[in-house]
Amino acid sequence: MASTRELRRRIRSVKNISQVTRAMQMVAASKMRRSQERVLATRAYSDRAWRILTNLASQRDETEGLHALLRRPEQTRSIGMIIIAGDRGLCGGYNNSILRASADSIADARVPVKLITVGRKAGEYVTRFGREVVAEFPGMPDQPHLVDVTAVARLALDGFLNGEFDLVLVAYTDFINTLIQKPVVRRLLPVLIGESADEAMCEYIPEPEPEMVPKYIYEPDPRAILDTVVPRFIELRLYQAVLESVASEHSARMVAMQNATDNAIDLIDELTLTYNQIRQQDITSEMLDIAGGAEALRQAQEA
Q: Model confidence at 212, in pLDDT bands (50, 70, 90)?
């Protein structure tokens, strides 16, 4: 059985750890609120951007082919996958969940998969298992901006247009609420008009209502505008995925630190109870020794 000195040392150590986890919980909660506000705000913007892109794509001539980024390849010979994970741990199963989902998707693919990683944990994972990595982007900010994902989107766009990738997927964590985050693997390229939410990154875009779609007049023309709008829309979808992942990470870290703090408090209570029991036993033993010594002295004096 541990001594009272060891128990006091353990109680003091656990108290210090609980103070650290509580501070980390408060920091994560602050970051989580800002991240949730940003991700919820961008969903409405993604909705309107998708509607504009759909309207532009539908106003092409019959003899005109689809835009290169809207065209489904005849054969899939190579897949590019963007894996978005965190740079740090202490966030529960956040990193493990998305990395496991990515590994399952890679295992199901029948063609070579080339990886682009966002976040240090994703880079360490693919390097450990010897996957083919095109580029790594560690150090994503806690509150990312669109410029932070431009290089990643440009790499995916160039690879798709050059024929290096016939299909581009993105693995990220979908933010549901503070307690629920769902790892998903969605198609980023090509952008297929009319695709379902299960096939692409449009789960927050409502189904279009059956109505007469007005034919707007665009200047210079829909084709020229598509050349600018479609790449920007790809950047927006990737930015949305990064925001979803960041909000999920901060939520997972806040919950994990809260659980760690609660467990530390419970452990302190158990250690304190054990310490008091041992201390009481020591006091009782000392009292018994004193009483026994006094009784022996009294008997000796009487004799």
A: very low
My answer on whether 134 and 152 are in the same domain is yes
Residue 286, domain extent? 4-22+257-298
Does residue 197 carry a pLDDT above 80?
A: no
pTM (predicted TM-score):
0.82
Please check whether residue 86 lies inside any domain of the structure: yes
Three-state DSSP state, 154? helix
Whether 27 maps to a domain, the answer reads no
In a domain, 202, yes or no: yes
User: What pLDDT shows up at residue 265?
Assistant: 92
Least confidently predicted of 167-171, 194-198, 227-231:
194-198
Token pair recorded at residue 172: 């990220």
* Residue closest to 99 by CA, chosen among 245, 285, 291, 282: 245
CATH code of 214's domain: 3.40.1380.10
- The Cα 201–Cα 185 span in angstroms is 9
Q: Do 145 and 18 share a structural domain?
A: no
CB 188 within 8 A of CB 105: no
Please report, for the domain that includes residue 283, its CATH number.
Answer: 1.10.287.80
Cβ neighbour number for residue 180 with a 10 Å cutoff = 10
Q: What value, to the nearest 5°, has the Cα angle with vertex 258 and ends 181 and 272? A: 150
Residues paired with residue 174 on neighbouring β-strands, in sequence order: 182
**d(Cα 287, Cα 293) in Å, to the nearest integer?**
10
Number of domains the chain contains: 2
Using alpha carbons, list the distances in angstroms from residue 279 to 28, 62, 235, 276, 282.
39, 89, 65, 5, 5
- Other CB atoms within a 10 A radius of the CB of residue 244 amount to 26
pLDDT for res 170:
93
39 & 178 share domain: yes
Which has more confidence, 222 or 163? 163
